């Protein structure tokens, strides 16, 4: 994988709670077919074995479509399946430690909700930033709010790609794009919709205008 | 660390719920001073960052006393602090994957509650087995029961060290020793006691008879 060529446009972060009885791996495949350019597998309440098995299954799909697969938080899982990268929040492994253990070739993304966090992450070698929460979200209640103005300031202060996250959907997507970000991260706007394929396609269409 | 020289006699597995308001790192130090020969850090409900910070703190202590430190389940934490080893349960990373990622020099222990699991773990290169639960325990409700007879069968069927775990304390310790195990793993019999140092010393005394 060529890190410089990664397309951050429509970045799917998983949340199995959005899916009801639907299968996570199948839902990810539908989202990719609809236009998702990057997948982050995020699991907080399963055993390591279950996370690993799911990650192996998802990697088969993302590899088939040549979409990068990023693991949230768990470097052990990222290493075990040789994922394309790791995403760390402020309560996860420190960026520097993650880079030391993963090496220079893997994508490492960092969650940032302030300019300070963003600048530090860039300085420490992050490949991209996940900035949010931009809008109110039911998925991640521990995220600090970031205004569209702050998002714009962060985007103009760093040279690595910035992906906006938090409550982004079809209606507010134009506002986020106006901030000049490299991509948007979505959870419920894709996985919480009845037709996952169409939902991803609709977002992709708005992003391509 | 010389893997062959590891002393499994009195193996402490941590559980912060046993401690009330007492500090985990301080409690571990008291247990070591009382005679604990090995420490396994087990955390199931903290963030990766918190687990890492705690593990770094505990490693300072175990290094000072030259006691091996084993991390439960989380290979990312084990790698991040360069721990002496990893303990995996049947719901954690598979033994083979853990060995592949940790290399030959690290201690890897596997939980086994059947002869089949024990033989497989040995064959896959486990350094020791944690066999239990021998007695009823409030700490780990997902553990399958293993009789003293089964424990003895497992001990005689493998050539790697066998550590018995589950509800072991001063009163039933002689029964477990009679099964010929290499060591006992304790949680509440040390960390759940008012005087951690004395509790470890008392167990060590019984073990030395």
From TrEMBL, chains A, B:
List of residues binding 2-[(2R,5Z)-2-carboxy-4-methylthiazol-5(2H)-ylidene]ethyl phosphate: 137-139, 167, 187-188
Top EC class of this enzyme: transferase
One GO cellular component, as annotated: cytoplasm
Annotated positions binding Mg(2+): 73, 92
Keyword Magnesium in annotation: yes
UniProt keyword annotation of Ubl conjugation present: no
Cofactor mode of binding and number, as noted: Binds 1 Mg(2+) ion per subunit.
Segments crossing the lipid bilayer: none
Family: Belongs to the thiamine-phosphate synthase family.
Protein known as: Thiamine-phosphate synthase
The organism's taxonomic lineage, starting at the top: Bacteria, Bacillati, Bacillota, Clostridia, Eubacteriales
């Amino acid at each position: 994988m060529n890190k410089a060529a990664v397309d951050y446009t429509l970045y799917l972060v998983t949340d199995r709670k959005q899916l009801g009885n639907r299968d996570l791996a199948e839902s990810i495949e539908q989202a990719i077919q609809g236009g998702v350019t990057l997948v982050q597998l995020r699991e907080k309440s399963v055993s390591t074995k279950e996370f690993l098995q799911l990650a192996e299954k998802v990697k088969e799909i993302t590899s088939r479509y040549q979409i990068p697969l990023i693991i949230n938080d768990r470097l052990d899982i990222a290493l075990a399946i040789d994922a394309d990268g790791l995403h760390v929040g402020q309560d996860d492994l420190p960026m520097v430690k993650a880079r030391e253990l993963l090496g220079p070739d893997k994508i490492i993304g960092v969650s940032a909700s302030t300019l300070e966090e963003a600048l530090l992450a860039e300085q420490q070698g992050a490949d991209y930033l996940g900035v949010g929460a931009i809008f109110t979200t039911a998925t991640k209640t521990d995220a600090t709010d970031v205004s569209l103005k702050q998002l714009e300031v962060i985007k103009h202060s760093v040279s690595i790609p910035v992906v906006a996250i938090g409550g982004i959907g079809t209606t507010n997507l134009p506002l986020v794009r106006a901030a000049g970000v490299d991509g948007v991260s979505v959870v419920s706007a894709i996985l919480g919709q009845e037709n996952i394929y169409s939902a991803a396609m609709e977002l992709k269409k708005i992003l391509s205008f």
